[in-house]
Amino acid sequence: MRSNLSHRVTIALLLAAAVLLMSHGSSASGQSGRRPPKKIESPDPLPSKPEEPPIKPPEDKSKSRIPIKVAWHLRDVMDSSMLAHVVQSGCLDRLAQSNSVSAAPTDDVNRKQASDMAKASTDTYVLWFEFEYDTGSLRQPPGGLDPSRAQQMSVRYEVFAPGTGKSRTSGHLFQRVRTPGGVPLPIPSTGSTAAVEYSFRYMGREMADRLLDALNLPHPAARR
Description:
By secondary structure, the protein is of the alpha/beta class. The chain has a domain at 61-214: 3-Layer(aba) Sandwich (Rossmann fold), CATH 3.40.50. It is built from five helices and five strands; from the N terminus they run H-E-H-E-H-E-H-E-E-H. Helix 2 (81-96) crosses helix 5 (193-214). The N and C termini lie far apart (145 Å). The mean pLDDT is 78.
């Protein structure tokens, strides 16, 4: 009786041990087969925007132009400042059509002052002019204009170089009856102030072209 009981106890213990071993193996197998949790990857970063080039301010074309000062001188108190301004205005109008120079007027200065003005600058040429007469006794009335006397007047000009103040070129301009292209010009006559102004303005334009020639620069496409 006791042997049967001990036999049963032994069997029960063996069964319990077998169950424990089986459950332990099943747990280990399950754990060994479990995959590690998948790592959540962050989305690919968006490509960076290419940097836009900085906005350049519009180029100031005047900086690439050669600066010019247009000056005049009256040697005699009887000379006409009115005609000097007419010649200067015609010259400035012509130079304003050029893309190579930037011209500005200046006051009455003598030849030395014009040369010193150019010498004191690093980039500015000075175009200087004065009147001459065919007959020394002929002079314009102060502040006025005598068309008959104006016929005896010519323009002497000189270009002074920056930095040195030395003469780059010089010459004379005379009133024309016709332009180089054959277009007739009004001939100064007594009482015709408008004709005189036109003729002297044209001398100013010719003086501008002489300046451009001296600097090896092209003439504007057309005369106005």
